[in-house]
């Protein structure tokens, strides 16, 4: 492993020399190139010789992206795995005022920006967790005391106006980006090819997501076991999970136990007592403040399967609802299920190839700052007492 580490570092250095960019940009782009090259070698050793021979369980892939280079990386990796029907869906860049205004306008069009869910406030948004991004307790504390003697913000515009730590724009931009994708999917504007199936699955991926080794084999085998009422199926989740949400299939003989499927029913994502139990369990088992996710159950929109009919239902359900995280809105508006053993993983921004074994497994705990995040092809870590 060590000799290959030095080899990939040499590739990265050569890449920097060839890129026409400034030092910081060169470093970022060479890391992207390095990630793609290394991932290809890892998958080559694990994947079947002819991935294109496997049936594709979805019609197309839509990569939600604000960064052209990250999209190209995702497209190249999918092509390596035999998936060529890949399109970019442009997201909203929260760091640009014009795009943030567009995002707010779209949410306002659907009446989703006029009020706030009771879980949404400036300090709470600073506590948001995602894989690789622990909660910002300092910013949350500052926002809390700054607004302690003020009335709560009434809508998304006021939420943005009061934001002093840049905690709000990204949440708004992500919500609007997925909303626009659903709108265009429902209207048939994203699809680039005709399919025989009336209401096929489409795979939505955010730009910083990698699919796990063997994902195609597993999806081909396991997707037929998904519940018939599934409208959205997540390939990845973070936050908490409940064993009681396992989807089971009854067998013919009533005396035999029901068979557990690969899926979890993503329901009641904000059930208060369960969140308390999960966080308490993790603290008592040695988790630190920075590794206990400040998130509900089955959080995340990194990768999911969706049908056009599901997109139409989401658009109908979201209209006039109070604003909250788009993953929570999605789960409260349609029948969501998740793969218990996840099929996708957040892509790390940096790879330490000098550490032996750091990239040996795509799901290595060394590559995520959230210790409780599920890992590729593995059972999710326990976070419940019962």
TrEMBL record:
Residues 359-386 are annotated as: Disordered. Keywords: Signal. It comes from the Eukaryota. Residues 1-17 form the signal peptide. This is Hexosyltransferase. It comes from Durusdinium trenchii.
């Amino acid at each position: 492993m060590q000799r290959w580490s030095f080899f990939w570092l040499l590739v990265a250095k050569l890449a920097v020399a060839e890129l026409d960019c400034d030092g910081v940009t060169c470093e970022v782009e060479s890391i992207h190139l390095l990630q793609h090259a290394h991932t290809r070698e890892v998958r080559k050793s694990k994947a079947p010789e002819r991935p294109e021979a496997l049936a594709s369980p979805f019609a197309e892939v839509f990569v939600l992206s604000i960064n052209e280079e990250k999209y190209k990386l995702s497209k190249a990796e999918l092509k390596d795995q035999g998936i060529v029907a890949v399109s970019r869906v442009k997201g909203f860049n929260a760091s640009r005022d014009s795009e943030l205004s567009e995002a707010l306008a779209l949410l306002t069009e659907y009446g989703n920006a006029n009020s706030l869910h009771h879980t949404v406030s400036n300090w709470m948004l600073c506590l948001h967790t995602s894989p690789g991004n622990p909660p910002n307790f300092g910013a949350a504390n500052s926002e809390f005391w700054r607004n302690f003697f003020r009335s709560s913000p009434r809508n998304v515009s006021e939420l943005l106006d009061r934001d002093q730590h840049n905690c709000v724009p990204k949440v708004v931009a992500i919500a609007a980006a997925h909303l626009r994708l659903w709108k265009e999917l429902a209207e048939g504007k994203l699809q680039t090819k005709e399919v025989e199936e009336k209401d096929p699955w489409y795979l939505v991926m955010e730009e910083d997501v990698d699919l796990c080794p063997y994902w195609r084999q597993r999806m081909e085998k396991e997707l037929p076991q998904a519940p018939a009422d599934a409208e959205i199926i997540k390939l990845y989740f973070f936050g908490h999970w409940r064993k009681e949400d396992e989807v089971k299939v009854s067998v013919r003989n009533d005396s035999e136990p029901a068979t557990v499927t690969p899926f979890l029913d993503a329901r009641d994502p904000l059930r208060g007592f369960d969140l308390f139990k999960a966080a308490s369990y993790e603290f008592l088992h040695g988790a630190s403040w920075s590794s206990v996710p400040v998130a509900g159950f089955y959080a995340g929109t990194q990768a999911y399967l969706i049908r056009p009919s599901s997109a139409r239902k989401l658009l109908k359900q979201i209209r006039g609802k109070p604003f909250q995280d788009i993953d929570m809105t999605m789960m409260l508006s349609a029948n969501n299920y998740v793969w218990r053993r996840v099929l996708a993983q957040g892509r790390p921004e940096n790879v330490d190839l000098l550490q032996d074994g750091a990239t040996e497994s795509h799901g290595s705990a060394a590559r995520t700052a959230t210790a409780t995040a599920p890992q590729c092809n593995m059972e999710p870590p326990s976070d419940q007492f019962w």
